[in-house]
Amino acid sequence: MALPDAPTTLPPAPTSRRTLDVETGDVELDALLADAASTAINRPHDSLEASQAARERAEALGNLPGRAYALLCEGTALSLLSDHESALVVLMQAQTEMEPLGDLRGRSLVLGSLASVHVSLGNLEDALETAGDALRLARALGDTEQEAWMLAGLGNSYLDLGETDRAMEVGERALRLFGELGDLNGQARAHTVLGGALRHLGRLDEARIHHESALRIAEEAGTPINTARALHDLGVLEEEAGRLDAALALHRRSLAFRKEVGNRQAQSTSLLQIGRVLSAKGDDEAALDALHEAEQIAADIGAVPRLADIEAALAEAYERAGRPADALAHLRRHQAHREAFLVARTQTRLDVVQVRAEAERARQEAEIARVRTEELGAANEELSRTLRDLKAAQSQLVQAEKLASLGRLSAGLAHEIQNPLNFVANFADLNAEVATDLLGTLETARRTGEPPDLDAVEADLEAIVDNARRVRDHARRAEGIIRSLMGHVRDVGGERRPTDLHELLERAVSTALGRTAVHVERDYADVPAVEVEPASVQRVFVNLLENARWSVEAQAGAAGDGFVPTVRLATAPVEGGVEIRVEDNGVGIPLDHCTRVFEPFFTTKPAGEGTGLGLSLAYDIVTEGHGGTIQAFSREGDGATFLLSLPA
């Protein structure tokens, strides 16, 4: 059985064209691309070298169109040199890079070359789909030459699929277009398609006319790859006519041209045909030599579909030679290669789908960028007018903002120092009451002449000392607040030292919740001491607890009897630090406010009950001052949770 040639299509543009007719803006790069295109058919090694040099120059220049076209030429040259797997990878990259350029002609050329590679790899369905896309693009662009080449490629693919009528139809259209263009290489290819279709229909004399026309035109054009193909097709006709000596001579001539060009897959095809003819002639040793040479070439280039065909031919040849064991071994290899081919074809189709998706995404992104550019251009003038208006009002706005900021800062300062001042006043009042009691005790003793109750006197004096200490602590806290506010909680030079966070939490509980009915639950883990500025971090805890107290008291007023206002404190070690959790069962925070509670001057409290600086300052202390994090989680009516982390 005679096989179709491999590859069944001459790779389309750019190898079908003598020039690319592309300008990249760099003379040297354009020259390299032109050289790569013009040498592809007859000197693919030179074409590969020129295309790789073009790619390197394009990359050095950052020339994206130049790189895309260089990849196109490189992939096509690799295909002509039978390195189809590498060609597929390079051409799919070219497709991806061509899409965002918006170059429809370049996209059509890439699709054409991809279609040819798919045929060589045996992926006929992908080849037809890709060639169909290229054909539609060529027609939309009015690119008659590319349209004709895609028709010729489709014709050979239809032959491989057994769709002879469609092959005849597109072959005739291709021949007409190539004739109008005066393209000799294209005419030779179109005759090849028509001759193959007629041979499948059993009209061998008509097929011979087309193949002889293809040979004559190819020799006139001086294109070895087309000459070799025509000789191959004529050899197949001679085989089918039983003229084996004539067939052998034609296949050997075809092989010589294919060696000249360097197309190794086509060489393996010629050797396969030579081996089959020799086997049919009874020259078993010569047949096996030719087939094993074909086997080696196909294995070297990874042409799995062709290798499967060669193994089948070897099995037949060994069977004819009376060596059934060898025949069985090669038949098994044939089956193994067929299975490997099916697996590889599935993977290739998956790769193609992925690349198409990436190319489409790149195209969409390029289109979005173009639309945005147009929209931005139209908006620039409007923005300029707006900018002029803004500048006119800028000085007034700046002054107004300064005054507003001063007012907010003053209100925030009052909010922050109000609590410690309240404590100072309360403890001062307590001292006054205790001192009054003490004076009364002393006055009674003086009046009665009885000694005073020393235990009571001692207790009063201790209370005075303790209250005085608390007054001092809260006065210093107020002083620290003022200093911190002046820098908006930047480092004020406070000493950092390893600190027991549980101790700070307990101090904050005593300060914020000491005289309230709020129930405090604790879940303290064994956590390490953390290096912090104690006063600042304690102030964070106090702020959180004061907010929690306000929230649970508000909830208690709404819930009535039976509600237990509760605050839960928990600590836990985490990677790189310590986590502190402050929870309450209060009124909660609306969900859309959780991300805003740390903004300066934002508050969820009723007017007059908060200025919104407390949590803002807490945020700065934790994040900027100590490199930690603080987050709020809540649902309105369901309590709130503040989660802090401090690096250990």
UniProtKB/TrEMBL annotation:
Family matches, as Pfam families: HATPase_c, TPR_12
Group of enzyme by EC: transferase
Catalytic activity: ATP + protein L-histidine = ADP + protein N-phospho-L-histidine
Domain Histidine kinase as annotated: residue spans: 412-648
Keywords recorded for this protein, A-Z: Coiled coil, TPR repeat
GO molecular function: phosphorelay sensor kinase activity
Database matches in InterPro entries: HATPase_C_sf, HATPase_dom, His_kinase_dom, HisK_dim/P_sf, Sig_transdc_His_kin-like_C, TPR-like_helical_dom_sf, TPR_rpt
Ranges: TPR repeats: 148-181
EC number(s) stated in the UniProt entry for this protein: 2.7.13.3
Ranges in a coiled coil: 345-403
Protein's recorded name: histidine kinase
